[in-house]
Design brief:
Layout (H helix, E strand, L loop, with lengths): L3 H23 L6 H8 L3 H8 L2 H23 L6 H15 L3 H15 L1 H10 L1 H14 L8 H19 L5 H17 L16
Helix pairs in contact: 1-2, 1-4, 1-6, 3-4, 4-5, 4-6, 4-7, 5-8, 5-9, 5-10, 6-7, 8-9, 9-10
Length: about 210
Amino acid sequence: MPSKAEQRERTRDEIVRIATRRFAESGYAGVALEDLVAEAGLTRGALYHHFGSKQGLFAAVVERAQFAVADAVERAANADAPPLDAFLAGCRAFLEASLAPEVRRILLVDGPAVLGWGDWRDGDLESSARLLDAGVAELADAGIVAPRSLGTVTTMISGALNEVAIANASAADPQRGIDDAVATLARMIAGLAPGDDSGIAQPAGP
């Protein structure tokens, strides 16, 4: 017989599974808790016991989705591959994972709006952004990009990947969009190679 703790965890997992599907299909605003608990065979009080509120439930759904995407990225970025190949493979895995409705709708559209940018970003920093930081640092260590402003490089790549993921959701050929994005990213990274910056225009002084 499962323990009470195991039963609670199973119940929580089932609620998150059902909520993930419903939030992906209907969006946060379109999900009624009454319908969700009815499908789960629970009471509204049981849901509040586990998650506190609809937003608390959504936060649990977002967290699980964030770490699922991070897991896909980490598996794709094979440590045995050359650093640039591994980095681009991880970026491709993120874009491919983002084609799933539960990733696009929950993570990229509703997540920041419902949870607030700060809380959503905190979760992102613990999952995919952490891997992106590590990947950019490895590129710098390998001499592929200059070891300057790596935080800015990471932030710009992250924003670009998120925008491509959202655009691909409605694209006629999302796979081509992914191919184009990865090829463009490779060219951008080539432009960050260490070298003489004397020919780059600098901001005018005061």
